[in-house]
Specification:
The complex is a heterotrimer of chains A (about 170), B (about 675) and C (about 170).
Chain A: H1 2-21, H2 35-42, H3 61-75, H4 80-91, H5 106-131, H6 137-142, H7 154-169
Helix pairs in contact in A: 2-3
Chain B: H1 2-29, H2 33-62, H3 69-74, H4 81-86, H5 92-110, H6 122-143, E1 149-153, E2 156-160, E3 167-169, H7 185-200, H8 202-213, H9 220-250, H10 261-286, H11 291-313, H12 328-349, H13 365-397, H14 405-425, H15 436-450, H16 452-459, H17 465-496, H18 500-510, H19 512-537, E4 539-545, E5 550-553, E6 556-568, E7 572-583, E8 586-591, E9 594-598, E10 603-607, E11 609-612, E12 616-622, E13 633-641, H20 644-661
Chain C: H1 2-25, E1 39-41, E2 47-49, E3 57-63, H2 71-85, E4 90-96, H3 101-110, E5 117-119, H4 124-128, E6 136-140, E7 146-151, H5 157-164
Parallel strand pairs in C: 3-4, 4-5
Antiparallel strand pairs in C: 1-2, 3-6, 6-7
The chains are: A mainly alpha (about 170), B alpha+beta (about 675), C alpha/beta (about 170).
Chain lengths: ~170, ~675, ~170
């Protein structure tokens, strides 16, 4: 019974996750794109020339021209994805905010997963160990009796007192 | 003349640093105390010497000595005095000098304390401190000399420090001035704070290395460096927050953090530094997991050096990058040496640090701290990967890619959630032992209160599930801290029959660290609140308006009332829009987004007008690549809910660190009022 | 085992940083190097490959319509193109760097450019030549070796001529 509920929960969560991942696409044909419409697409792209600046925040003439292109394409009815693909074909993968998921780029997404799963597993294993530490077998072999108290010399005692005094004076 | 003084003192500092390293090494290997003491003197000297150097450069900047190449690059006649001073760190050479000066400040400061108890650590602290300083001074002297000047030799203009044959000094009439984006109060405080944060970590690192080298495995290095670590952490946190504040104020994209590679380079040492702070706690309180603090401080320090290397070497593409420089290769050598030395020492002393590692419960304080350290490290590893991946991709496939915000946010959000969750339980958790019954008893009341964090947002119309969960966690942490504080105060009042004020102050004094931690965590939670608000609920719009027209966003209306254009004495042309912020027809406020155009560098900067309340920020900025006239000005408007809590949180954190490092009275026995003999 | 991983990882990191640093310090493709192969599709649809022009001198000019400093040399380049046109063994190719087509065509029309120009799709060509900005011009000799790299605009037609004539008999 519990397993069935868990399964159901898993499906619901996965479905919710997948649905939330569907990007907002599509744009009604014909109407004049507003600045906001342009910015919504520009936000997802990076300036091909400047370093690490999103296309909606960039002030150069070139960026203004690129936003103009977005505006034109939106007016023609292109979707967000079509516009992004166009930019990639023109300027390369670096205009996207994330490496496109193909070929070598899969590594960038896999490694964090490995880090988390691997790290989590290592921690779990460590935790098991720390929960129940192995008794030190060697200890039992060597010590047959309780150790004898060590005699401190006068000198040592004085040094210890000196240290204690220093510590309490801080 | 002044340039000679400046360079002379710089060069002497370099010699003194190298001398200090050699003297300390010689003194300690031959057991000759006087050499070590001499090295200590050397370490004391570097700060005054470098102060002369910095003073000279400041003099040159303030007095418009444009024959000095650096001055003409970062300063100009029309800049106000405060900007000329901040120009000290406005370019690569000056900022490296500034870095060295701060580093010298810390290394010299370390010599002030009495070293009698730690004679064996002293030489190695000197070696590490002065050795690092010597490296940066080498960069300053031979690679990025800020005192280089323009000389005319026949028809050519040559840049050199010393006079070339047949050359005479030539001074341009004016400089190019600081990049307008840097002409902001943020420039005054963010870089210094950031550098302070970076550089301060050398102290705990030096102590740790000294401890490793001398083969000690005790806590002494942690005791010695505790205050330094707290302040270093505070400075680093403030550096990041100030950078965020500056970005918010000036950059005009309504945001505060862009996941830019240089920002991430500053974040990485913060992540491991925070982990280090917490690992130290476990070692001090329970004597366990002793390997963790030492690994973490080494990691933190190495990340600081690595971050600086990435920023200054031209390896990263970023808005923060300095101009291309020649220091890359030698920096890489220094990094290699530091990494290798640290790791080699660590691995050879590893077994000495084996300690009892026992966890009785998943909910004990040390377990919770360990989990939070693991989370922070996970975040660190992922961000590190994201920063270097574009370079890997280019190397292997030749394709340039961008690893941007979506990648990092996907990781940061769950981790922040996890940390908030831990922060719910940890004030209540006890060291080593946990009783679920006890925990439950302490948790149920805050839990009820925390439900407000779910109910109120939903009533307010919120549907985004992650946001609701986030608000709930925030409410929960605040409630737990609040209830715990009240509980302990009440307990004191009951047992010690003190009045409220006395009880509150005593509660702080008796367990200072615990309360400071509560305060700091509360500050973090406030920041989390701000982050949640702006990340989940920011809305924006853009439109071109003529005077008198309005734009709407998120139940507010903004009216473009009038435009004022004027010149200022510091060579700017200001186009200032008067904007009315209205809600339901009523005028709430008047704000002034403006565009400043700097004549000497031909560059515009836009400053937003912001109406900021505890509930939200209404943020209006002029779009500067479009015309600004009374017939038409283009405005970009952002509605940022709750963002003010980000900055409030920062103040709370500062307060918390001050409490934590407040000097303690010499410990006396705490006498209970009721214990007087009858 | 852990130690090997740690040291190995550190070594990989350092090697990787060295390579990255070296590459970032590298300037443009320089004189004496073999000119990287490329394929340029002009605005009018023709394909031009560097290999096709083996045996001729190739003038490869990188520009953009938003580039202010490209404008002074535009007319001079066209003039040079016309000057060498009848010889048939000096080829002019223009690579439009990170630009938008309408503006690019407008630029070409404004300066009366008639030699083939095309967009640098996916910035592949400028990456191959490690172009840092515009304008930059690469003169490639008949054997496909770079003979001159011009960073920034040419100052005049004579300047352009002086970098081409030495290659011709």
């Amino acid at each position: 019974m519990i397993q069935k509920t868990n399964r159901l929960l898993w499906w619901v969560l996965s479905a919710a996750l997948l649905i939330s991942l569907i990007p907002v696409t599509g744009y009604a044909q014909g109407s004049d794109p507003t600045d906001d419409d342009v910015n919504a697409v520009a936000k997802q792209l990076y300036c091909p020339v400047c370093e690490n600046i999103p296309l909606d925040a960039c002030g150069t003439t070139a960026c203004e021209q690129w936003r103009g292109i977005i505006r034109d394409k939106l007016a023609e009815g292109w979707t967000d994805d079509e516009i992004k693909t166009y930019f990639v074909n023109q300027y390369g993968d670096r205009v996207l905010a994330e490496p496109p998921r193909r070929g070598f780029n899969w590594i960038v997404y896999l490694v964090p997963v490995v880090i988390f799963v691997g790290g989590g597993y290592l921690f779990y294993r460590g935790f098991q160990q720390w929960r129940s530490p192995e008794p030190d077998k060697n200890l039992r072999k060597k010590e047959k009796t309780t150790p004898k108290p060590v005699k401190l010399s006068e000198d040592d005692i004085n040094r210890v007192e000196e240290e204690l005094r220093k510590r309490s004076q801080g | 003349m002044v340039a000679e003084i400046g360079f002379g003192s710089l060069f002497i500092s370099l010699i003194v640093s190298i001398y200090g390293v050699i003297a300390a090494l010689y003194g300690t290997s031959n057991h000759q105390k006087k050499w070590v003491l001499s090295a200590q003197q050397a370490m004391r000297l570097v700060f005054p010497l470098l102060t002369i150097t910095v003073g000279s450069l400041l003099y040159l900047l303030i007095n418009n000595n444009f024959e000095v190449v650096y001055v003409s690059k970062v300063s100009s006649l029309s800049m106000p005095l405060y900007l000329k001073i901040t120009a000290l760190w406005g370019g690569q050479a000056g900022s490296l000098l500034f870095w060295s000066w701060l580093l010298a400040g810390f290394t010299s400061a370390v010599t002030i304390k009495k070293w009698d108890r730690d004679q064996d650590l002293l030489p190695w602290v000197i070696v590490v401190g002065l050795g690092t300083l010597a490296f940066f001074l080498v960069l300053n002297t031979f690679f990025e000399n800020p005192f280089v000047r323009y000389w005319q030799v026949n028809q050519d203009i040559v840049q050199s420090f010393s006079q070339p044959a047949g050359g005479f000094i030539i001074g341009p009439r004016n400089g190019s001035g600081l990049n307008p984006l840097l002409r902001h109060p943020g420039m005054v405080i963010h870089p210094p704070m950031q550098y302070l944060g970076f550089v301060a970590f050398i102290v705990p690192y030096a102590y740790a290395m000294a401890s490793l080298i001398t083969g000690r495995s005790d806590d002494r290095w942690i005791q010695l460096s505790r205050r330094w670590t707290l302040w270093a952490w505070l400075f680093l946190s403030l550096g990041l927050i100030l950078g965020a504040r500056w970005a918010y104020d000036v950059l005009g994209w309504g945001g505060y953090w862009g996941w830019d590679p240089v920002e991430i380079s500053a974040l990485m040492p913060w992540l491991s530094g925070t982990a280090f702070l917490h690992a130290v706690l476990i070692q001090e309180k329970r004597g366990m997991f002793k390997q963790w603090p030492i690994v973490l401080i080494i990691l933190t320090y190495n990340l600081v050096i690595f971050g600086t290397f990435l920023t200054r070497s031209g390896l990263l593409s970023s808005v923060h990058s300095f101009a291309r420089s020649t220091i890359g290769p030698i920096f890489l050598v220094f990094i290699a040496l530091t990494f290798i030395a640290s790791f080699w020492l660590l691995s050879s002393r590893w077994d000495k640090f084996k300690s009892r590692q026992e966890l009785t419960s998943f909910f004990s304080k040390e377990a919770l701290i360990l989990i939070s350290i693991v989370l922070l490290m996970g975040m660190l590893a992922t961000t590190f990967w994201g920063v270097i991946f574009p370079n890997i991709s280019e190397l292997i496939t030749g394709a340039k890619v961008t690893v941007g915000p979506p990648f990092y946010e996907r990781v940061a959000a769950p981790i922040l959630g996890g940390i908030l969750t831990i922060m719910v339980i940890c004030p209540l958790a006890v060291w080593s032992y946990v009783s679920f019954k006890h925990l439950g008893k302490l948790l149920w009341k805050p839990f009820i209160v925390s439900l407000l964090g779910i109910v109120l947002p939903i009533l307010g119309g919120l549907t985004k599930v992650p946001a609701v969960i986030a608000f709930w966690l925030v409410a929960f942490v605040l409630a737990v801290n609040g209830f715990e504080f009240v509980r302990r105060t009440r307990l004191r009042r009951k047992t010690e029959s003190e009045n409220l004020l006395e009880a509150v102050t005593r509660v702080f004094q008796r367990n200072k660290r615990s309360y400071a931690a509560m305060i700091i965590h509360t500050g973090i939670v406030f920041m989390a609140l701000g982050i949640i608000g702006i990340e989940f609920f920011q809305t924006e719009t853009q439109g071109t308006l003529a005077e008198g027209q309005e734009l709407q966003l998120a139940s507010y209306t903004m009216e473009y009332e009038e435009l004022q254009i004027f010149d200022t004495p510091d060579a700017r042309n200001v186009a200032r829009a008067v904007v009315l912020v209205k809600k339901d027809g009523e005028v709430l406020d008047e704000i002034y987004p403006r565009r400043d155009f700097y004549y000497d560098s031909n560059q515009p900067v836009t400053i937003p007008g912001v109406r900021s309340t505890l509930v939200d920020d209404f943020y209006v900025i002029l779009v500067d690549w479009k015309a600004v006239t009374s017939e038409g000005a283009t405005f970009k408007v952002y509605h940022n809910p709750l963002v003010k809590w980000l900055w409030i949180g920062a103040w709370v954190i500062i307060f918390g660190v001050v409490v934590a490092t407040w000097p303690e009275k010499k410990s006396s026995m705490a006498v209970s009022k009721n214990a007087r003999p009858k | 085992m852990k130690k090997i991983l740690l040291w190995g990882g550190l070594a990989v990191l350092l090697v990787f940083l060295s390579i990255g640093l070296y590459r970032s310090q590298q300037g443009q493709v320089s004189k004496g190097e073999k000119a990287p192969e490329f394929e340029l599709i002009s605005f009018s649809g023709e394909t031009h490959r560097l290999a096709d022009y083996h045996g001729s001198v190739v003038v490869l000019n990188f520009w953009a319509s938003w580039c202010e400093s490209c404008k002074p040399e535009a007319k001079d380049l066209e003039y040079a193109y016309q000057y060498y046109l009848n010889r048939g063994d000096v080829i002019f190719l223009g690579v439009d760097y990170v630009d938008t087509e309408p503006e690019a065509l407008g630029y070409l029309e404004e300066f009366g450019i008639t030699f083939p120009n095309g967009p640098d799709l996916r910035t592949e060509i400028s990456q191959a030549y490690r172009v840092r900005g515009v304008p930059e011009t690469f003169i490639i000799d008949q054997n496909g070796i770079i003979s001159h790299v011009q960073i920034g605009p040419y100052s005049s037609f004579e300047h352009i001529k002086s970098t081409i004539d030495p290659l011709l008999d």
